[in-house]
Design a protein that fits this description.
- With about 50 residues, the protein is an all-alpha fold.
- The protein is about 55% helix and about 0% strand.
- The chain is built from two helices and no strands.
- The protein is elongated and about 50 Å long.
């Protein structure tokens, strides 16, 4: 994606990752908003997952 794996420091790497994630989230924003609108509230208590 970037052409090289070398970054000046951790902040530069994190900035690169933030940019990539932001672009993908923006591209999928309509689908994410639609999914959020259809979500139901979580139950008050956790259920057992054993069968």
């Amino acid at each position: 994606m970037r052409g090289t794996a070398d970054f000046d420091d951790l902040a530069a790497y994190r900035g690169f990752i933030d940019e990539i994630v932001s672009r993908r989230n923006a591209r999928n924003a309509k689908r994410i908003d639609h999914a959020r609108a259809t979500l139901q509230a979580l139950p008050d208590r956790r259920r057992s997952t054993t069968c």
